[in-house]
Design brief:
alpha+beta, Fructose-1,6-Bisphosphatase, Chain A, domain 1, 2 domains, five-stranded mixed β-sheet, 7 helices, 13 strands
């Protein structure tokens, strides 16, 4: 009920402010717009945590035009932190600029790892094994969007998931790029309807993570 109310409230307010824009969301029927702008909403990412009282969940809103994200916001209610960014305008948390990690080795921090029900768990297990073999540590809190926000803020070296829906990843991917990091570019023609593989990290660590993901996800 809380998720449904949150989704309806977010969509209603966006529709009131931008009546000609489209809206897509995990808990919302698609609304076709006229401007080329589409608002992509997840009222609660980390639902399993939310319903069990675990404070690792967030509200996610992105706006895309022709498949390219132009605005991204991730709000973590339990901490009161709001991560936000605009294409070409930088990334911030509660108004303070953030930067992706400058680490060059996996042994310098933790990598967020997602587990998609649209991909094999064996692939994630293989990836985690590779990260640990490099002296790294994996981190998972069951909210991919929140881990992307942490990667943008440099708290994590990066975040990887074999497949994510647009409402879970578009905002966070924009934040990582605007914070000076690198992301695996999604296909703008299909990302909103079909999602994408996500590899997002600081510039120096991204090549290594991409190599490991290519090996782990190759089948």
């Amino acid at each position: 009920m809380a998720i449904a109310r949150s989704s309806c409230s977010s969509a209603r307010r966006i529709a009131e402010a931008y009546p000609a824009d489209g809206i897509v969301g995990e808990e919302h029927a698609p609304v076709t717009g006229k401007t080329g702008h589409i608002w992509v909403i997840d009222p609660i990412d980390g639902t399993a945590n939310f319903v069990r009282g675990i404070p690792a969940w967030c509200v996610v809103i992105a706006c895309a035009r022709d498949g390219e994200t132009v605005v991204g916001v991730i709000h973590e209610a339990s901490t009161g932190e709001t991560f936000h960014g605009r294409l070409g305008g930088g990334a911030f948390v509660n108004g303070r600029p953030i930067r992706a990690s400058s680490a060059a080795a996996l042994s310098e921090g933790s990598v967020g790892t997602g587990l998609s029900n649209r991909a094999s768990t064996e692939h994630v297990a293989a990836l985690i094994s590779m990260i640990m073999a490099e002296g790294g540590v994996f981190y998972r809190n069951a909210s991919g969007a929140l881990m992307l926000a942490y990667a943008a803020a440099g708290r994590l070296l990066g975040y990887v998931e074999e497949h994510m829906n647009a409402w879970d990843c578009l905002a966070g991917m924009l934040l990582v790029e605007e914070a000076g990091g690198t992301v695996l570019r999604a296909d703008p023609k299909i990302v909103i309807s079909q999602g994408t593989q996500v590899i997002a990290a600081g510039k120096l660590i991204f090549p290594k993570l991409r190599t490991l993901c290519t090996e782990a996800f190759r089948h």
